[in-house]
Amino acid sequence: MIPMLGRATFNVQPINLGWHTERADFMAGLGEFAPTGRYTDGASDNTGLGMWSYEAFGGTTVYLDEARAWSFAALAFYETHSSKEDSDVKVGDILTIEGGLGKSWADGAAALGVSYFAQWKVSSDDLAAGISNPNKHKIFGAGPELVLPMASKKKFYGTLNLRYLWDFGVESNTQGNTFILMATFPVPSIPLQ
Q1: What is the C-alpha separation between 140 and 124, in angstroms, rounded?
Q2: CA distances from 23 to 63, 105, 111 (A)
Q3: Given CB 3.0 to 4.6 Å as the disulfide criterion, which of 73, 90, 112, 139 pairs with 99?
């Protein structure tokens, strides 16, 4: 899911399944985002969204060569929402697809490639007093991505992910480029020897 900067969220995934074949990996699951942060209907200083969100997702990574160095990935999310606190406002459903094409090296610990995403609002927002907002946004983006390992000679500590995305084809949404810096750490660290 494309993150909403400046908004507090708490995500739980009670179902997250994954399985592997020789030339592909698959995952599917269900998740929910709990309302966190301050929210008052009509306030201009909210730090939360005031609603629950529910998400079903599934996707695959397909390895394009026998060495599993080249891969193409796609992951789709379908998101629905509860009504906002103390109101009849309900955000429409959202479909997001994200993934990339890349080449890995260092036994799969590092990768360089191109990331992409596409997002569509697939149902109208329901506003107060039965009014519906028929404007459904859409947004697309693509750009380079680099994944680097964080390790010593004895332990793998995690990965550092750098991604830059240029937005295009935007309708009824804000537009701008996005830089993402993400660190992932397995707990406990993974021994290498």
Answers
A1: 19
A2: 5, 17, 17
A3: 73
Q: What are the pLDDT digits (tens) for 106-123?
A: 877 789 999 999 999 998
Burial of 26 by CB count in 10 Å (0-12 exposed, 13-18 middle, 19+ buried)? Answer: middle
pTM of structure: 0.80
Longest dimension (CA), the chain: 64
What residues contact 55, with CB distance under 8 A and at least 6 apart? 1, 30, 31, 32, 33, 77, 78, 79, 80
- The DSSP secondary-structure symbol of 176 reads -
Q: Which residue, among 99, 87, 90, has the nearest Cα to 59 in the 3D structure?
A: 99
